[in-house]
Amino acid sequence: MTAALTTPPHATERTVVPLARLEVVARTTPELIERVCRLLRHRGASVEHLVVTADGHLTTLVLTARVSGNVDLLIRQLDRLPDVRRARHG
């Protein structure tokens, strides 16, 4: 008697993680993008799209990311990064 090979239900079902649009305005520093991306990675977010605009001493990051956790918590954590002036979503 041989056991039939079956695929577990969780292996075929995909959880859809919602997209969030985030905007970060910060003082221009060489490590800014790295800090933001590292925070997103540690919080389980996946960046889908990133646009960087530098205007003198300020840099604006507009990104679309798949965020599996609480977006408001992520925004508060981004706000606490050094040199970040404002972080928001929407």
What does the secondary structure layout of this molecule look like, with pairings?
Elements: H1 9-12, E1 19-27, H2 32-42, E2 46-55, E3 58-66, H3 71-79, E4 84-89
Antiparallel strand pairs: 1-3, 1-4, 2-3
- Proportion of residues in helical segments: 25-40%
Overall mean pLDDT: 89
Count of beta strands: 4
Strand order of the largest sheet: 2-3-1-4
| Sheet with the most strands, sense and barrel status | 4 strands, antiparallel
Order of SSEs: HEHEEHE
Class derived from helix and strand content: alpha+beta
Shape: elongated
What does the model show?
The chain has 90 residues and is an alpha+beta fold. Helices cover 27% and strands 38% of the residues. The protein has 3 helices and 4 strands, in the order αβαββαβ. The protein has helices at residues 9-12, 32-42, 71-79, and strands at residues 19-27, 46-55, 58-66, 84-89. Strands 2-3-1-4 form a 4-stranded antiparallel β-sheet, with helices on one face. Strand 2 and strand 3 form a beta hairpin. The radius of gyration is 18 Å and the shape is elongated. The termini are far apart. The mean pLDDT is 89.
